[in-house]
Design goal:
The structure is a homotetramer.
Chain A: E1 7-12, H1 20-35, E2 38-42, H2 46-50, E3 54-56, E4 84-88, E5 94-97, H3 100-110, E6 114-119, H4 121-132, E7 136-141, H5 157-178, E8 181-186, H6 193-202, E9 206-208, H7 216-229, E10 234-239, H8 267-279, E11 283-287, H9 299-317, E12 323-328, E13 331-336, H10 352-359
Parallel strand pairs in A: 1-2, 1-6, 6-7, 8-10, 8-11, 9-10
Antiparallel strand pairs in A: 2-3, 4-5, 12-13
Chain lengths: ~375, ~375, ~375, ~375
């Protein structure tokens, strides 16, 4: 252990993700029991750094949180201390200031000598800012989308996959009873991991991923073909980031011309409508939404989060600087924290699971 | 047992509902084991009656279906034999004909002497048509919405409540970690049963039901009040049929002016947007959709469906005519099948559970 | 509201039961929000009364506990203030004393004017003791066994049924793949409610209940018959209190003659062995045990527990004395608290659900 | 594809394991869609080979089985064609004969040119017998215990871990409310994988594994220590194969001296009793049993099983001989089928997850 470190901070940033509390618990308990380190919990991600909201975490604080969804520390989605909105111009535009120095002073005054940043690619950019200013940061990758560069898997993904699969299993029934095409839109941003794995797990007939632009006519051909074959239903799992060949991603947007503008649907809704129009077969879309990122983590994510939190502390205790905890194969390892900055790991079109899915008869609409 | 009956038909009509297969199984097994009756399964609801698609059900057919969602017989949503589309006018308008006589001939030729109709209020109207033409029909009420007149509870409802509660539990986490208002729109048509019970079960902060028109400003007051009190999150469970005081129900509709018209959101989406605009607090809506009506039924629904199927057969075997199986309190009973025709059982505003919810601090936005 | 009451106590006694925290929450919130009453939580059931361990419950204390299993107040299984072990005789026999007066003094000194006792039939006897000494007690019935006299249903039961059904569903698979008889022993003491409802819900082939003594030869006949019919597996759901005709209940006991005495199995284990011996068909027993009484309650139990807690407070606030909250049909009501004292509600052999189960081919081994 | 192969057989042998049907489906669909191979399903494992029970699998046969537990082909636990009981000696001892030649004739007559054997280490020995007789066998490793040599993970394990974790989560509640030590005995034979991962996932206080013999006094010290610290409950996850230092494994055995011999408990029961005796703290044991190996597989197992089935077919189609499909890190690979013969992969005492568990305060009783 580096003798100089006696107090560290931990924060959770970005969107919600099952397993955050499991990391906080593993970090705090390992610090306390193994290394006699004090852990400060920083509230609401980087926002708590700016606003100086942090508190020491006790054994009681991290008791009984392993199975709980969310984060006991709170999070904030968009806080970037380098570009922090401090007010508005006369014309309503926000005025931004760099609050990094303020954050550094808060840390110094508290005696916090290193940070554990639990977050996604955006948060790792936030961490990189502090790394450049001399704060030792250990990153713990977190995203349900499983799209972080450098790690084979992130916690939260298994839970999202579980929930998406359960929903697809349920929807299967409705489609089969009513001779329908059912489109289920799942999360994943620009990566199709959730759609691919939950689609394979539930035996979806068509998988539409951001990595494989689809041809709506080929999608409709599959729907019609199944209907001819006697199975008058089709299950389509679609990533929120999927897009047609040559087309744009459908962004969830607001119709400005409507007197009472309410949000329009996304790509799943659009595909369902196109299928209905082109095949005449009744089609419905379900957008899973935030249920995918909340609630108690599945065991796999709890184990992974515990390993990540433990390893983060071990790195710190062994004097490591600015590392990102990762999983490579079945082994825990670490890489440069800056490596994950604003990059995404998408699925290679020849990925083994895509080949297996094609082999069992799944269409990718291409 | 009425000696003349030796063969009956069973059909499932209307939307999907967990427990349909459990009824089919109970009907078929009771007929076979207790009354030596033959059961014909009619495919795709009333459509199979018109198209003469029906088959004898064997012990094997109903083996292992108790826990399965959907219906092994298939269903059809909108088929009304009295108004059956047989073609189109030159101007594209459908031409309707009354196919009741055709259905009667199909039944007669097969020797089917009575029908068990598993369906909602619409399907009971369909049954009433055959009742008026002399076919003995026993109705089994089916709807996840729990809104059928004459029965205190319908199977399918407990499963929908379970799924909605589970989703609300998961969403709770996300809201709490991110200081958000989370709106969860559940099914129920014009009745608030699913929203009320899942809302109470999950401890939702605001419940918006069709039976209690809401004042969006009061909704926003609760959101702001909670934020002031230190709980910067609010969970709102809303029925798809909820509406503002003096306002109209928001129908899921398509914007015709958009070049690429995709379906617009419903009342949940609108409420989320209004909260965000009026309070400045980040708000999100999740529409649960079809996951609520598919998949394996919870035990309560399997038991209820088994009782309903059993009682339907007992009624038939005892010579009853045109009854609807119902649950009154904890007792199974029956009523006139025509009683359920196109009526709905909504929640009285002074319902015990509403009083209890108010007592523990839940707002109804009124 | 009776003006004189301003402070009440609440305790949970007896075995664990999903929904206890939901009652505590409803009691506390209704007291606080509706009646301006202060609520003291008494720790570890009647033991906390004797040992003067109680604390005021705040809004924070009951926040986020609705979905949590167990009880935030703790419980104690066997504490009876009238017969409280205060030491041991020289020969090791315990010395009992009546601590009722001590408890009364503790309550008086705290200004607690009424008690809400959440418990089973044993705990209602404990409450009756205080009732006789002039303390107003409102009872809330609690047991997973569903066997309390006066109420049609108790919270906790639906969760136990859910867990037992889920286990039976899983076990079904194993039996079917391996041509086995699988015996699953569930809780319920002298009442067969859990076995009956989970058995019907999962389609168990044989149900053995305390209320219907079984003939092991008839049980074996069913197993052999199914094997002849081509289904070489049988699922048997058995209550822990089931017993053979003319036989005794098998008590889980310790063999005193064994050098390393470990607990012997119960009735489920015995039935499995007898089937194997008499039919030659491989048989296994699984004893579900404590998983049935822990963990998050299913929505039905949360709703019921909320209603019970709310009604208990309403009774108190309206000046009622010594009532037991009950559910009659679908209506909440109340009865004399002494009515539930040490009695049990078992299943009538001609119960509707038994008739329905027989009709679909289930054997009761009789 | 090797041109000579046009028909293959598939069988499932050994204990039940979630994911078997997913493999059968992937094998059959890949064979059909990709390689124009015919697949014969052999019933009840090696027994069907001896008894010549096998049937061609159609697309319909493998439809809708992906999510189903068990195996549509049936299995048999102990059938070894090399040592097949054909009758009994006069003294009741079984007479064994080698039926391998018979099996070979059955295969030859059917034109089955290769076998896919889905099984554990015992079944791979069975396959090796056929390999030595010139039958090309591709092995697919299957065990919930995760103890097969050569692969980092087996399907079925994730489901067992899920069920064990869910049970531990539920039991946690009961223990916490009642100040008890709760022992939960899980499966795993001589390997502690299920106990280790479910124990870490649920935050069990003590983990007792076959790989780390325990000292019952140290176990009791932890129980007492927790009690002193104010947490009067302890959760102990124990493998069925765990054993005390210097002691023997406790085998589930029958007491021969009892007039009505019923099975005695195993190591979990013994540990619970010892804790109660040595600490005076109320202790209970729950033996999870067969629920761990049945029911629908979790998504992870469905994906893994699909990959395994797909890869097995790819190997066959590419002319590979006698390979075992394995997972190394996150990559699918294959090894000699004989490598897995009767060996087990246990946990190294310095395994990362053991280190992490110790770091967060878990005791291994050593």
């Amino acid at each position: 252990m580096t003798p100089s470190i006696s107090r560290i901070g931990v924060l959770t940033a970005g969107g919600d993700c099952p397993g955050l509390n499991a990391v906080i618990r593993a970090v705090t308990k390992t610090a306390m029991f193994q290394h006699n380190l004090e852990v400060y919990g920083i509230e609401d991600g980087f926002l708590g750094l700016v606003e100086n909201r942090m508190r020491p975490l006790s054994r009681e604080d991290v008791s009984n949180i392993l199975t709980r969804g969310g984060t006991i520390l709170g999070s904030s989605n968009k806080c970037n201390p380098q570009r922090y909105a401090v007010g508005e111009e006369e014309d309503g535009k926000p005025i931004f200031e760099d609050m990094t120095n303020l954050c550094l002073r808060h840390l110094k005054r508290r005696g916090i000598e290193a940070l554990i940043v639990i977050g996604g690619d955006g948060s790792m950019s936030g961490a990189a800012n502090f790394v450049r200013r001399g704060v030792n940061c250990i990153g713990v990758p977190k995203t349900i989308d499983n799209d972080l560069v450098g790690t084979d898997v992130t916690f939260g993904f298994a839970t999202a996959r579980y929930i998406a699969t359960e929903a697809l299993d349920r929807i299967h029934t409705t489609a089969a009873s009513h001779h329908r095409a059912m489109v289920v839109e799942v999360m994943g941003r620009n990566a199709g991991w959730i759609a691919l794995e939950s689609g394979v797990a539930s035996g979806a007939d068509i998988l539409l991923l951001p990595e494989i632009p689809f041809d709506i006519d080929k999608v409709c051909d599959v729907v019609k073909e199944r209907s001819r074959y006697g199975k008058a239903f089709t299950i389509i799992a679609i990533s929120e980031g999927a897009k047609p060949i040559g087309g744009e991603q459908v962004v969830h947007h607001v119709d400005p011309t409507s007197p009472d503008p309410i949000r329009l649907g996304g790509v799943g809704e659009r595909v369902a409508r196109q299928i209905e129009e082109k095949t005449g077969i009744d089609s419905r879309c379900t957008v899973l939404g935030h249920v995918q990122r909340g609630g108690t983590p599945v065991p796999e994510d709890r184990v992974l989060a515990t390993l990540f939190g433990y390893h983060a502390l071990e790195l710190l205790a062994n004097g490591a600087q600015n590392r990102l905890v990762v999983m490579q194969g079945r082994t825990i390892a670490d890489t440069e924290i800056t490596r994950a900055e604003n990059k995404q790991r998408t699925i290679a079109p020849d990925h083994l699971l895509i080949a297996a899915a094609r082999a069992v008869g799944t269409s990718f609409g291409d």
